[in-house]
Amino acid sequence: MKPKAPKNRKKGWKKVDTTELDDFIEDQRLQERTGGLVSDKTNEELFFIDEKSPGKPALPDSSIIGGYKKLKSFSNLEPDPRIPAISRHVKGHTKQNYLKSTKPLTRSQVKSLEQRKKDVSKRQQYLESDSKLHQETYDLWGNEDQVKGLDEHFAVVTKKRRVKVPSSLKQKPSSLPAVAAPHPGSSYNPSFDDHQELLQKVVKKQVKEDLEERKLLKKTAANYGAEGPPTQESYLKEMSQGLGLNEGSDVESHTEEQDDTLTGSVNPPKAARKMKTKKQKRKRKEMLQELANRKKEKQARILNDKNSNNRFRAIKKEIAVQEQQAEEKSRKKSLLLASDGLRTKRLNKKRYEEMEESVALTSELKGSMRLAKPSHSLLVDRFNSLQKRNVIEPRSRAKFRRKYKLKFAEKMPFKEITSSSRAGGGIIVPYHKKRHNEKV
Asked: pLDDT of 120-170, one tens digit each?
């Protein structure tokens, strides 16, 4: 027999389902709040007779908005019909207040009324006019003919018309092709005629460059004499004349030692420039003026000569020569304009230099693409093409220039262990000190 647990403890509580009891009590409370219990009401209070015709549709419930019924909690936010609405109190100086008032209007009030009338009339004119912004639909990718009637500035700002760009923007700087076909003789397996033609072209170019170099050397040799241009040794020998140096001595070291002792200049002093006096300047000016006057008088005499009819043939000949020169000039100009797209223009101080063509000798031809070697870089070829087509200006490789002088740091002396010290029982002997000049 189980011992009975005390009822005042939680362990002794009975677990009973009271859901139905709670629902019944809640329903009774709701009926009492909404007009009394249903069990106590009569049939007339519970039911009513429907007198509406079945053909007419029922009116929609005002409490249902958008298919959803209003929440009960929102009923406090709706206006109460039993409470009168608050009347709107008009403030400020209005026209009705001015008219109702018995006092005469002041000067400022009259001015404000006139200004208001002007503003209203101006607003009315603006609304009646066609100056208002209007909306239009158009094809974004269509032609510009659709927006012909619009204002130029309005069409550009609203992106209906493109901004006018210069015509030179669409023109190419050169008519040359971007990728030019190479000479057939530069192929890895060219024909005999093409290869010989390319070789002749390269040889002619090289011969022309050699001739120009010889001409330059010939001109410089004529100025310097039979000895030719000076070298570094000849220059030092000439500059050291009269300093009492032996032929076998070092000129450069001796000049550094004697630099402090030499104070005077070797070159003789130049004579002072002789300036002209005011009288000489005036005389020269008068002489030039007299020559100019004589020239003008001679030209006037020729034009006003009585016997100018006798010079008819000479004048006719001069006119023919001038016409011929003008025609030749115009012909050259037309040829220049025709070939303008095919030539490389001068864009900066550096001239464009044609890239050397890749050519292989007969013994170097392999006949197979697998054995062929590239002659130059593709990047260099594209860079040269941009220069030739006037896309970029000709450029030269930047030279390395050090912005500062190199400093020489002297390392600390160090010691070394010679092979004899290791063999002789591990005695460490200090080695001679060395100075190492190292770039930093």
From this structure: 888 888 777 755 555 566 666 666 555 566 677 777 777 767 777 888 888
Q: Please, which pLDDT band fits residue 318 given cuts at 50, 70 and 90?
A: confident
Beta carbons within 10 angstroms of residue 156's beta carbon: 14
Mean pLDDT lowest for which of 189-203, 267-281, 415-429?
415-429
Say how far apart CA 390 and CA 344 lie, in whole Å: 6
Closest C-alpha among 144, 142, 143, 164 to residue 153 = 164
- The residues, ordered by sequence, that sit 6+ positions from 362 with a Cβ below 8 Å of its Cβ are 195
pLDDT of residue 394: 93
C-alpha–C-alpha distance, residues 98 and 95, integer Å: 5
For the segment 244-276, what is each residue's pLDDT rounded down to a tens digit? Answer: 665 555 545 545 555 544 444 456 666 667 888
- In 3D, which of 398, 402, 395, 409 has the Cα closest to residue 438? 409
Q: How far apart are CA 327 and CA 319, in angstroms?
A: 12
> Measured between alpha carbons, how far apart are the two ends of the chain, in Å?
106
3-class SS letters over 131-164: CCCCCCCCCCCCCHHHHCCCCHHHHHHCCCCCCC
Is-contact 407 422, C-beta < 8 A? no
> 68 phi and psi, to 5 degrees?
-125, 140
- Per the rule left: phi > 0, alpha: psi between -120 and 50, beta: everything else, 163 is beta
Hey, CA dihedral for 212, 217, 218, 219, is it positive or negative?
A: positive
Give the number of other Cβ atoms within 10 Å of residue 245's Cβ: 16
- Measure the CA–CA gap between 130 and 125, rounded to whole angstroms: 10
User: Hey, is 438 helix, strand or coil?
Assistant: strand
H/E stretch holding 319 reads helix 312-338
Distance CA 223, CA 270 (A): 25
pLDDT digits (tens, 9 = 90+) for 206-247: 999 999 988 888 877 767 766 667 788 888 888 888 776 655
Residues 6 or more apart whose Cβ sits within 8 Å of residue 302: 308
